[in-house]
Amino acid sequence: MGILKLIVVVLVVWLGFSLFKKIRKPSVKTEEKSSSSKMLACSVCKTHIPENEAIIQDGKVYCSKEHLE
Ligand SMILES: [Zn+2]
């Protein structure tokens, strides 16, 4: 009886732990995604913006169309 109870407790703890890992995994993935996207500094205001949102012209980086002009 004692051993059975211990096995049940271990199983419950293991299940809880694996569930916790499953819940945590997506957040880790999104963190990796955001960190892998290159950050560029605007040559006008020095604001750091993701590469896919930046406007690059003549080798210079701009955060918005206002700074491009
Ligand atoms: Zn700017």
TrEMBL record:
Residues of the LIM zinc-binding domain: 37-68
MF annotations from Gene Ontology: metal ion binding
Keywords noted in UniProt: Metal-binding, Zinc
Keyword Metal-binding: yes
Pfam families noted in UniProt: LIM
Protein name, UniProt field: LIM zinc-binding domain-containing protein
